[in-house]
Amino acid sequence: MLAGAALVLSACGTTIEGRAVAEGIDTDGGEFRSLLEECDTVTPEQIADVVGGDAIDQGFIGAICRWDLTGPGGAVKVTFDWFETGSLAAEREVNERLGWTVSDVEVSSRKALEIRQPDDPASCGVAAQSPDSGVIGWWVQYRPGNPTDPCESATRLMQLSLNLSA
């Protein structure tokens, strides 16, 4: 429920008015004041520039944000995720369990992971500790045959995200 939204419950003739707020949440606008704005930290224009797209369409927005792009090299899918309680160790474990290749890398002087699907060389993900809490990740998936390195693109997007906090 968004902050400031009213909640009215009626049961057995009793009405309770107020706001539903999870226990421990700062109701003065602190912790969740920027909910869903993480999808806007890197602009669509920056994303298009990094992956080589001419047209961009933003899809789902939430814990996972998605964009579909088209350009000279064909269609490109870009995903950004932020898991507030995630960790690099958990990211490594999940991706290795999937049978994907996970390598330690450094992005903007931070420890990060580069993730590749062995059967899809046109896609790559990069995960790093969020500047606030949890873990953030970028995933770039080109069409097979596109000569652009998806890991280079995912790394550049991660650099843009991490440099915002510097």
Write a structural description.
With 166 residues, the protein is an alpha+beta fold. It is 19% helix and 39% strand. It has helices at residues 44-51, 88-97, 150-163, and strands spanning 7-11, 14-18, 55-58, 64-71, 74-83, 101-107, 110-117, 120-129, 135-142. The strands form 2 sheets. It has a 7-stranded antiparallel β-sheet with strand order 3-4-5-9-8-7-6, with helices on both faces. The radius of gyration is 19 Å and the shape is globular. Residues 1-11 and 18-33 have low confidence and may be disordered.
Order of strands across the widest beta sheet? 3-4-5-9-8-7-6
- Fraction in helix: 10-25%
Radius of gyration: 19 Å
Strand segment count: 9
Order of helices and strands: EEHEEEHEEEEH
* Low-pLDDT regions: 1-11, 18-33
- Class inferred from helices and paired strands: alpha+beta
User: What is the number of helices?
Assistant: 3
Topology (elements, then pairings):
Layout lengths: L6 E5 L2 E5 L25 H8 L3 E4 L5 E8 L2 E10 L4 H10 L3 E7 L2 E8 L2 E10 L5 E8 L7 H14 L3
Antiparallel strand pairs: 1-2, 3-4, 4-5, 5-9, 6-7, 7-8, 8-9
Helix pairs in contact: 1-3
Tags for this model:
single chain, 166 residues, alpha+beta, two-stranded antiparallel sheet, globular
Q: How would you summarize what this structure contains?
A:
The protein is α+β, with helices and mostly antiparallel strands and 166 residues long. It has helices spanning 44-51, 88-97, 150-163; strands spanning 7-11, 14-18, 55-58, 64-71, 74-83, 101-107, 110-117, 120-129, 135-142. The chain contains three helices and nine strands; from the N terminus they run ββαβββαββββα.
